[in-house]
Amino acid sequence: MSGPLLPGATLGVMGGGQLGRMFVHAAQALGYSTAVLDADADSPAGRVSHHHVRTGYLDETGLRDLAQAAQAITTEFENVPAQALRTLAAQRPVHPSADAVAVAQDRTQEKAHFTRCGVPVAPHAVIETPEQLAAVRADLLPGILKTARLGYDGKGQARVDSPQALAAAWDRMQRVPCVLEKLLPLAFECSVVVARGVDGAMVNLPVQRNLHRDGILAVTEVGAGVVPDDVAQRAVEATRAVAQGIGYVGVLCVEFFVLHDGALVVNEMAPRPHNSGHWSIDGADVSQFELQVRTLAGLPLVQPRQHSAAVMLNLLGDLWFTHGSEREPAWADVLALPGAHLHLYGKAEARPGRKMGHLTCTAAHLADARATARRACEVLG
Ligand code: ADP
Ligand code: MG
């Protein structure tokens, strides 16, 4: 194995969204140059990167330019076509690999992988044909029909409570391959971010407790007691098994459901840093984005130390419209709160449901971080 890519080298990322932007920030802080491939001239990551290749993911010239500019390449978006990553991998190290990303892109394959790793998944049925639709067991209803591919933030999903509703929902989804999952009674949700190096070494962030609204992550809390110790331990072990089982290199996040009896059910994985790990920028001494840089460059991984309890609030475009007409939220008032760390992604247009930024409230104790988060919500109104 050759040595690590040291600061001064250029690191590339497929995708120019907010995750790419925070990767770029972390890479630049360590002294790397960066290259982003994204067709949008105004993309959040493209705007702050040294190089910005403005083409689609499958554009041959764009991929060649990225591989020329960057000595190693990662992705910030799980729906980058696996073929694009394969093309890049013929020229440069690419982490995570196209194969690993391909598994995470497809709920059916993803569930099969979890099962192979001995981690329980929700009861479900694969629906790719009318015969499979007709054969769905009644005990999977009420359930959630999810497109096997391309869903995010609750998009590509429908709640169904009868065979008729299921058939109608599948029609509305143009009968693309889907997974029907039983609707589980959740006590809460949590997630774990793990980083795995080329040498197989792994480190992880502490377990994060997540609250979703309308299928979109709204709040993440990290601190003593947010998740019972035994659940946290099982979640970390399961996440490590999932990463190990796929020979994963890079940052991976696994999302879990926790049922009322404490049972842990794996929901899905993201082959990249995750919204629920954003708190680590302000609440830990190594962020999930620095871990992504380290895994990509082949640098040593060190176990992150959480130094503050943290409550992360997602800032959705809705905030811009809370008083009827569009207006800029009261950032100065938010920034007057001790321990409030504002991150805005530089997106020009606010739209309801669009992730515009996040606010991490840190404190020595979780109760204080929660109090700051409550104050921030009042201020943002
Ligand atoms: P996405 O890819 O959009 O994040 P998820 O599969 O993670 O989709 O679903 C989004 C959210 O919907 C979950 O975080 C959870 O709150 C809820 N959800 C999804 N599947 C189930 C289920 N089987 N039972 C109960 N709630 C679910
Ligand atoms: Mg999810």
UniProtKB/TrEMBL annotation:
Residue ranges of every copy of the ATP-grasp domain listed in the record? 111-297
Its cellular-component GO annotations read: cytosol
| Molecular function per GO | 5-(carboxyamino)imidazole ribonucleotide synthase activity; ATP binding; metal ion binding; phosphoribosylaminoimidazole carboxylase activity
The UniProt keywords, alphabetically, are: ATP-binding, Ligase, Nucleotide-binding, Purine biosynthesis
Q: Which InterPro entries match?
A: ATP-grasp, ATP-grasp_carboxylate-amine, ATP_grasp_subdomain_1, PreATP-grasp_dom_sf, PurK, PurK_C, PurT/PurK_preATP-grasp, Rudment_hybrid_motif
Question: Known Gene3D superfamilies for this protein?
Answer: 3.40.50.20, ATP-grasp fold, A domain, ATP-grasp fold, B domain
- One of the GO biological process terms: 'de novo' IMP biosynthetic process
Any Pfam family the entry gives: RS_preATP-grasp-like
Task: Provide the function of this protein.
Answer: Catalyzes the ATP-dependent conversion of 5-aminoimidazole ribonucleotide (AIR) and HCO(3)- to N5-carboxyaminoimidazole ribonucleotide (N5-CAIR). Catalyzes the ATP-dependent conversion of 5-aminoimidazole ribonucleotide (AIR) and HCO(3)(-) to N5-carboxyaminoimidazole ribonucleotide (N5-CAIR).
Describe its partners and assembly state: Homodimer.
Question: Which HAMAP family does the protein's record reference?
Answer: PurK (MF_01928)
Quote the protein name from its UniProt record: N5-carboxyaminoimidazole ribonucleotide synthase
Classification of source organism = Bacteria, Pseudomonadati, Pseudomonadota, Betaproteobacteria, Burkholderiales
* Primary gene name: purK
